[in-house]
Amino acid sequence: MKTNKPLVTLLALLGCCSQPGLSLEMSAVVGAGVEHTDNARKSKNNTISELQSKASVDLSLEHGGTELTAEIGYRAEYTNYDKDSQDNDTTLEGDALLIYEQIDETLTWTLENSRRSVLKDKALDDLQSNREDRSISSIAPKLILRPSARDTVIIDASYTSIQYDDSTQQDSKRTGLGALWSHGLSAVDTLSMRLLYQDISFDKDQSANDYEYYLATLGYQAKLSRLSYSIDAGVNQSKRKTDDYDGYYFNGNFAYDYNVNTISLDLVHELTDTSRGNNNEGSGDFNNSSGDVDIFERSNAELSISNKGLCSTCTIRVFLLEELEDYENLSQDSREFRAGINFGYKFSRQLTAGIEADYSELRFVNGNGDADYDTIRYRLRLNQSLSRELSLDWSVSFEDKTSDGSLQNYDELRGGVSLSYRFD
Questions:
Q1: Long-range pairs for 304-312 at CB < 8 Å and ≥24 separation?
Q2: Distances (CA, A) of 100 to 139, 153, 179, 209
Q3: Backbone angles phi, psi at 339, to 5 degrees
Q4: Nearest to residue 294, comparing CAs of 370, 228, 242, 358?
Q5: What confidence score (pLDDT) does residue 341 get?
């Protein structure tokens, strides 16, 4: 696993700039457990019954002050495979955000880092050997100007580094300059305009894929008593040495609260590339089976409905997700659809249960030779609090995959138990 220098710098700055006497909350959770699977390689014929041991550490920190605020949360997990179905592996996922206000309401510095485990190849099975961690780190100074009581102008610069644990050809660096103007129409709604330029560069052996990115949008944001939403629409363009691509840009977020129900809708349509993918946001994994660098058009729509009033001790969430990827050069175009339901029930203060069901289908289009497939998953989890610090988790799950031509058909039954201890 690569050393994440921007993350180390962010934590060092937090330690140096922390202000005495202000809120600082830290916690750590250490855990250990075992899982048993009857099909460790997710294979139709060559099944392996295996015991997999896991050890994990969760760290979180929140700091609030007049000049410095921070939110940090990461999880590291080590997995040992006793039948060597895969190589033993350590993953690190999480987010960090640090905002330093150098000049009150005028100049701020934002440092961010996010790490996610992403699929290397959607056409292959979702094994640990088919995943790697992607780290996105950025630093951005922002100059905030207020020419009038209703108008705000933000000029920002940014530097972003994207690193992959294995696919180093996807590593990239991005330098950007942007401007945002917003005008308050009333106490509840705002009109905005945004311009952005970025210079994207890859490693030397991939320098032919370097490009410039341009974005121009108009936006409208409103926050009403029950409904809040924001819309940004415009155009974006990528310019490489050999070719240009352009298209429309759209980013919309809607949330409606009605009694005990919350309905959320998130819509995205944009140009991106195989290094950035979905920017470590949302529920989908981008498709990059060849490992080559390319620009693609990404469309994503996610609808979710949450309810906390079905009963006094339960919650329910239903979601639908559709994601389209249209590559410029690679033959990796795909469409992914997912639907799921999560149900939580609290038997007592010490015992809670969760039930999840998830269906997904992946379709490769435009001459891609990979096999389409459908997957359905079920999961039951019980959490028992043994004390304020100590808790026990039990889980059992079942996964069934069906592919065209029966080449990748399999089912897997998995169950496990883990013990965790919390330090505050």
A1: 304/263, 304/264, 305/261, 305/262, 305/263, 305/264, 306/261, 306/262, 306/264, 307/260, 307/261, 308/260, 309/259, 309/260, 309/261
A2: 11, 19, 20, 34
A3: -145, 140
A4: 242
A5: 97
Helix (H) or strand (E) holding 176: strand 172-184
User: How far, in Å, CA of 301 to CA of 299, rounded?
Assistant: 7
The DSSP string of 140-193 is EEEEEE-SSSSEEEEEEEEEEEEEESS-GGG-EEEEEEEEEEEEE-SSSEEEEE
The residue length of the chain stands at: 424
Q: Identify the band that residue 369 occupies on the pLDDT scale cut at 50, 70 and 90.
A: low
- How is residue 372 annotated by DSSP? P
The angle at the Cα of 257, spanning 254 to 258, to the nearest 5 degrees, equals 135
Q: Are 311 and 341 in contact (CB under 8 A)?
A: no
Q: pTM of the full predicted structure?
A: 0.90
Residue labelled with tokens 């048993």: 36
- Residue matched to tokens 């390319």: 294
User: For residue 104, which amino acid is it?
Assistant: D
Answer for the pair 89, 54: CB distance below 8 angstroms, yes or no: no
Helix, strand, or coil here: 39?
coil
Task: Specify the pairing of strand 334-346 against strand 314-327.
Answer: antiparallel
- Give the side-chain half-sphere CA count within 13 A for 75: 9
Is 80 exceeded by the pLDDT of residue 351? Answer: yes
